[in-house]
Fold this sequence. Notes:
The protein has 110 residues and is mainly alpha-helical.
Amino acid sequence: MGSLTLLNFKNLFYIFILFGALIMLINMVIASSLKKRIPGGFVGKWLAIMFVFMLFFFIAEAGSFFFISYLTNMDLAYFLISLVLFFGSIFVAIVNRFIFHLIKELEVRK
């Protein structure tokens, strides 16, 4: 019965947040190494924008790990979560735009 009490939504929240932050940190290291290899232009510009969003997600995930459980105002917690999800949608749109234009540039260089 003791292991079942460890698997509640709050503990799962912390596990997912911790692994999400770790994955985002790894993504930031990869993006940083890619940015050094790209001199600029469209790809360099959008990679820098994507890096800023990755940094935002890392800060949001790491911050939520430490302070969401201490919030007494659930409306604020819902607002913060909705902000992260909203900017996640924008991030996906930026990645899609980036990939679309990257493929377009690669097709031109054939």
